[in-house]
Write a structure and sequence with these properties.
The complex is a heterodimer of chains A (about 290) and B (about 450). Chain A has helices at about 5-25, 45-55, 55-60, 100-110, 125-135, 140, 160-170, 175-180, 215-225, 240-255, 260-270. With about 290 residues, chain A is an all-alpha fold. Chain A folds into 2 domains: about 40-140, Cytochrome Bc1 Complex, Chain D, domain 2, CATH 1.10.760; about 160-270, Orthogonal Bundle (Cytochrome Bc1 Complex, Chain D, domain 2). The longest helix of chain A has 23 residues, at about 5-25. Chain A is elongated. Chain B has about 450 residues and is mainly β. Chain B has a single domain, classed as Beta Barrel (Porin), CATH 2.40.160. Helix content of chain B is about 10%, strand content about 50%. In chain B, strand 6 (about 125-135) and strand 7 form a beta hairpin. The radius of gyration of chain B is 23 Å and the shape is globular. The chains are: A mainly alpha (about 290), B mainly beta (about 450). At the A-B interface, helix 1, helix 2 and helix 3 of A face helix 1, helix 4, strand 21 and strand 22 of B.
């Protein structure tokens, strides 16, 4: 077929313009054909929506209900934002987290899950995302975040504190889920389910360097003083005073695979795993 | 073109366009998205261009840095393979091309004509396979199939040891890989014959024989490091002076390359990055021969060249601009295509040139992406003092856009349109300026 090249070039340019027009019309801003949960977004929420569509929608779904296209292949399942229940909080169990809690989760990611660290995003991006995530549940309109837990200064680790932490591990029956050696193989482990009745394994201290909600002693302290909402891990805020909470932190550090000073002390003490059937010696009430 | 034919062409193009706009789903599975369950847009501003999250993922050795990176977390049936190809239609116009005045008669006088061609075509097929062999040991293997003769080449083949001694500053790569260049040519957002390669990396002065193509993948080792947030990055490479060709065809020398960059957040504008880079190398000017034929690997009379540049990559919301300035120079023997044991002609000198690249993008959304680029090359010193000072100077201007009709994590499809025009000064056989134009439109898909 013989071609008139001026005509061809003219057609090509016309099609470039036409294609661009159709693409722009189809695209409609940051929309991509997903249903809109609401339309009266603030400017920050709108920015967050664009970012959510870019980064989060594949797992958490366009409605934020954790039913993204990848959800069937992911274990544990992505968070359902419509329930406004979050694991990693600095606030008491049953309350909403602070924005900082959510931003920290975005920065850090969630260990033992598919949720990566979104550290390369800017602070502004993370704030925008949090603003948008909060539009998925009306709970955020009805109530504010809980009052953040006050974490007392970390005391010096001692042999006595580790021993007392071990006794608390027995007394609070942590072993029933986490196992006597912290391997996540306690007698209740196979029966555990999350708030959506899906099986969920307890944390295995002997394999993890990091916890679900961080890796510092303070993060660990917060985990069992606020609980992991939506999972069987309860809050022990009503059962432990701050000193006891730190004792438990120190003991749990002896169970982890990496080298810790707590582990050194436990070795010097010749600390053995707890005996569930032995009567626990009540820890000193500080 | 007759009227019915023109109508048919229109119909085909329209059908393509509407097909593009109506596609809603796909079942194919790109390797990394399948492994991690993230949409393409998580790592790509618009694929294949990386965003800061994708760059960090790459710098971490295709790892997100959580406990799901090792292959043991993958489904046993997972195969880390993706493919990419771009069926397209393109139009090429080559100005002042030397042709025989009587076709088929090489003895007829040469005249210059503008040669126009157009038609449907295919790019090469990239088979992209990459991932982790073990936590902190990653690989990339990219066999590429030439659609013309079906031959397979290896664009990339490397293994990388990541986070050595637990530090993100120590990552060691071995094999064939793309240098850590300021603008990746392997993730280029343009395809056309004129706009589909950076002058920055490929420009050669008239008469020069140095085959160092900066943007091509090279064979060697790389030590790369970055800060936790990837804002500070460095890469140092030692590569064979073969321009990535297999079988040691050149000499026994090596080239060095280093790249340092620093990024910073500028309020709500986004991430800004500035950097410097430099390459220093040698190329043989003649070979030992057998029966007059060069013996591969026996390059002699090595002569030097360098490329050095500074750049900045600036984001203002959805708009970003990368500007690169590069200074380049080749030894006089390379510049004049002479063996180092030959006598230089009068006025021979090492060619030197300056390159400026300005590439701007506007990411209207993860599904609609615009690109504009202007590159200019200016000769600072010709290989022969008698050459006109502007001989070989080049200007290339490219505009285009990509539309992604769906944004899923299993496959990607883009409708791509682009126009590029380039002019090189005094380079035709008769000493005229040459202007080349390219128009490209097609479907770029990966699965």
């Amino acid at each position: 077929m013989r071609t008139n090249h001026n005509t061809v070039l003219l057609c090509a340019i016309t099609f470039m313009s036409l294609g661009l027009g159709v693409a722009a019309a189809q695209n409609g801003g940051t929309s991509s054909g997903y249903p809109e949960p609401k339309n009266d977004f603030t400017q920050q929420e709108r920015r967050g929506k664009g970012l959510y569509r870019r980064y989060c929608v594949g797992c958490h779904g366009p409605r934020g209900d954790g039913n993204g296209e990848n959800a069937p292949y992911i274990d544990p399942k992505p968070r359902d934002f419509t329930l406004a229940t979050f694991k990693c909080r600095s606030t008491p169990t049953g309350t909403l987290p602070t924005d900082s809690d959510l931003i920290n989760t975005l920065k850090r990611g969630l260990e033992a899950s598919n949720m990566p660290s979104w550290l390369p995003l800017s602070d502004q991006n993370r704030e925008d995302l949090v603003a948008y995530i909060k539009t998925f549940s009306s709970r955020w309109k009805k109530e504010g975040p809980g009052k953040p837990l006050q974490v007392t200064p970390e005391p010096q680790v001692t042999a006595d504190r580790i021993k007392e932490g071990q006794q608390l591990f027995q007394k609070m029956e942590c072993w029933k889920c986490h196992g006597t050696e912290g391997r996540g193989d306690g007698p209740s482990a196979p029966t555990l389910t999350d708030s959506k009745d899906r099986p969920i394994p307890p944390y295995d201290f002997t394999e993890g360097h990091r916890f679900k909600c961080g890796q510092t002693d303070e993060d660990l302290y917060k985990i069992f003083m606020t609980g992991l909402d939506g999972t069987p891990m309860p809050s022990f805020a009503d059962n432990l005073n701050p000193e006891q909470a730190w004792d438990l932190v120190f003991y749990l550090r002896t169970l982890q695979p990496m080298h810790t000073k707590e582990k050194d002390i436990a070795k010097q003490l010749g600390l053995k795993p707890i005996e569930p059937n032995a009567a626990a010696t009540p820890p000193d009430n500080k | 073109m007759t009227s019915p034919q023109r109508s048919l062409a229109f119909a085909v193009l329209l059908a393509s366009l509407f097909f593009c706009c109506s596609v809603q789903d796909a079942q194919a599975i790109p390797a990394f998205a399948r492994k991690y369950g993230l949409p393409c847009s998580a790592c790509h501003e618009a694929w294949p261009k990386l965003n800061s999250f994708g760059q960090k993922f790459k710098d971490e050795g295709y790892q997100l840095g959580n406990d799901r990176d090792a292959p043991i977390w993958q489904n046993a049936s997972f195969w880390p393979v993706a493919m990419r190809i771009t069926p397209h239609w393109h139009y090429e116009s080559l100005g002042h091309t030397a042709v025989d005045s009587i076709p088929g008669d090489p003895t007829s006088p040469t005249i210059e004509k503008t040669v126009n061609t157009s038609g449907f075509d295919l790019t090469g097929i990239d088979i992209l396979t990459g991932g982790t062999l073990l936590k902190n040991i990653s690989f990339l293997l990219v066999p590429s199939i030439d659609p013309g003769d079906g031959t397979v080449g290896f664009e990339s083949a490397n293994v990388r040891f990541d986070n050595l001694l637990g530090s993100p500053w120590l990552n060691f790569k071995f094999g064939k890989f793309e240098l850590d260049v300021p603008l990746s040519e392997k993730r280029m957002m343009t395809f056309s014959n004129v706009g589909g390669a950076y002058q920055l990396y490929h420009f050669m002065p008239v008469g020069d024989v140095n085959d160092f193509s900066f943007g091509e993948n090279q064979l060697g080792v790389e030590l790369m490091g970055h800060s936790e947030d990837d804002h500070t990055r460095f890469a140092a490479s030692l590569i064979s002076s073969t321009n990535g060709e297999l079988g040691l065809p050149g000499g026994r020398t090596y080239n060095g390359y280093i790249h340092l960059s620093q990024a910073f957040m500028a309020g709500g504008l986004g991430l800004q990055r500035v950097g410097v880079y430099g390459a220093l190398g040698l190329r043989p000017t003649f070979f030992l021969t057998s029966g007059g034929e060069p013996i591969p690997g026996t390059g002699q009379g090595n002569r030097s060249f360098y490329r050095t540049g500074v750049y900045g990559s600036f984001y203002i919301g959805r708009f970003d601009l990368t500007a690169v300035y590069q200074r380049a120079s080749d030894n006089v023997y390379l510049g004049n295509a002479l063996a180092a044991n030959q006598v230089l002609p009068d006025g021979a000198q090492g060619p030197a040139w300056n390159t400026g690249t300005f590439e701007a993008h506007y990411t209207y959304s993860p599904q609609l992406f615009f690109i504009g680029r202007y590159e200019l090359v200016r000769m600072a010193q010709q290989a022969l003092a008698s050459n006109a000072s502007e001989l070989g100077n080049a200007d290339v201007f490219t505009v285009g856009y990509r539309y992604y009709p769906f944004m899923h994590s299993r496959a990607g499809l883009a409708w791509h349109q682009e126009f590029a025009t380039g002019r090189s000064r005094l380079t035709s056989a008769s000493g005229q300026d040459q202007r080349n134009n390219s128009y490209f439109m097609g479907f770029d898909f990966a699965f």
